[in-house]
Design a protein that fits this description.
single chain; nine-stranded mixed beta sheet; alpha/beta; about 250 residues; globular; TIM Barrel; 7 helices
């Protein structure tokens, strides 16, 4: 299946095996799959230092960051060959709640080692000071590693209202949890927070999540501005490549 809808489709939440221990595909493999599926661009969001990282935490900060960025760099190299835009982000974890960080890059990480140990509030302050944004990922997901549901409506810039790993038609029926998306979208609207949508992809099997914009994005900063200003024309929830859920 290939996305043939109107607008420009971007994946906002995916993992590669170079950076996330739970991922099964490399950055290059992921990029090739998304290019073939008709996506305009993808954002690599591997698990950060205290999440399910695949990079050795005993390395120096510079060495760890270099290893952490490999998935993005490999995806971008392949994306450049195939005409697929590839942007950088990450997913930070706090023993349950997880946050997607957009708008900052490798050099910023190298210059801000304090982000490694930052609390939720400290993270937001650092990210904002650097020009980035923080979106809470799948806030109502229930899983073994999530001790309790914690919400941060006053701290975050947005909410992942639709996570296709909860609802994609490619998932077995018993593995779907559409209610988690319904709760997240309702929560975001209640608090007047921008909605995002992503697949939480870990391999090359498309889950068909993402955000559709009326124009091609220039860079990751254009993406963050587009999220904050609600420029997406629709959010894919993984039901299929055509049906969308309005933002």
């Amino acid at each position: 299946m290939k996305y043939i809808g109107k607008g420009y489709l971007y994946e906002t939440h995916l993992h590669t095996s170079e950076g996330s221990a739970c991922a099964g595909s490399t950055g290059a493999e992921i990029a090739a799959a998304y290019a073939a599926a008709g996506y305009t661009g993808i954002i690599i969001t591997n698990h950060f230092f205290y999440g399910n990282t695949a990079v050795d935490r005993t390395l120096s900060w510079r060495e760890w960051v270099e290893g952490f960025c490999k998935g993005y760099e490999n995806a971008k190299a392949e994306g450049d060959k195939l005409g697929l835009q590839v942007f950088f982000g990450w997913e930070s974890g706090y023993g349950g709640p997880e946050f997607l960080v957009y708008g900052l890059g490798k050099e910023w990480l190298l210059q801000h080692p304090q982000i490694r140990d930052a609390s939720v509030a400290e993270q937001l302050q650092l990210v904002h000071a650097g020009g980035g944004i923080v979106v809470q990922a799948h806030p109502f997901r229930k899983a073994w590693y999530i001790k309790k549901i914690e919400l941060f409506p006053e701290e975050v810039d947005g909410v992942e209202g639709y996570n296709a790993s909860h609802s994609s038609f490619t998932k077995k029926e018993e593995d779907r949890h559409v209610q988690w998306n319904d709760q997240a979208a309702a929560y975001a609207r209640e608090h007047h927070l921008p909605l995002t949508s992503g697949s939480d992809q870990h391999n090359t099997e498309m889950l068909w999540g993402g955000m559709v914009f009326p124009e091609k994005l220039k860079d990751i900063h254009d993406f963050t501005e587009a999220v904050l200003s609600n420029r997406a024309i629709c959010l894919l929830d993984g039901v299929n490549s055509q049906e969308v859920v309005s933002g």
